[in-house]
From TrEMBL:
Entry annotated with the keyword Transcription: yes
Listed name of the protein: RNA polymerase sigma factor
Similarity annotation: Belongs to the sigma-70 factor family. ECF subfamily.
Record's keyword terms, sorted: DNA-binding, Sigma factor, Transcription, Transcription regulation
Amino acid sequence: MTVSEYNICVRDYSDNIYRFVLKHIKNVEKAEDIVQDVFEKVWVKVEDISFAKAKSYFFQAAYRTMIDYIRKDARICYSEEIQSEQKSFQKQTDLQEILNNALERLPQIQQSAILLRDYEGYSYEEIGEILSLNESQVKVYIFRARKNLREYLRKIDYVLDER
């Protein structure tokens, strides 16, 4: 890939990658850092990447960088964050908050697949390239994620109806 092709990719994909990462991380500064790391990592290998495959390469790099960050962050436990999460969970009335909590309950691979499909609008083939899965695996993960979301939201609906 040439420098001008790389710049085209940055222009075309940076917002989508940022939204994808932010939906998982839920922290603007950390999401920006991850996106910057992704573009830096791709820049180092820019000559080895085909422009035709650049989109899937960028998203795959974003996914892997984000997973590395999540794993690293999981080892560090902040008591303040835990306390604030417990308080926000108790006062859950906003639909967006409920949906975000439902998404967070999904396994990481299902969460990524559903976000790429339903929030970003990628095809099953593109999601497979990004997550290093075949198309049938992607469909299974999305089916299971939607099923889990449906079950969780039904439970929440039942709890809200009893109030």
